[in-house]
Amino acid sequence: WPEPEVAWSVFETAEGRGIAHEAALAARAHAYGTLGWTTAVSLIKPANARSAALAERLGARIEGQHAHPAHGLMDVWRHPSPEAP
Known about the structure:
85 residues; alpha+beta; Aminopeptidase; 3-stranded antiparallel beta sheet
């Protein structure tokens, strides 16, 4: 990974219930507040519309792409900084 990442994976039976959103918010708050991260990204395959929509709801924005050696081309979604409202 090119830098610290907030990631999620949800089984199909749990999709659409807000679980990934809540967990990602908590993980990001922990990464920023407890671990001292100053930045975070999420790497998402371009065809993964549900994860891209979640990243957008989390306030992340596409910053570019990353060619991962095992997973191929992935969009880099930049999360708001710890100082962002």
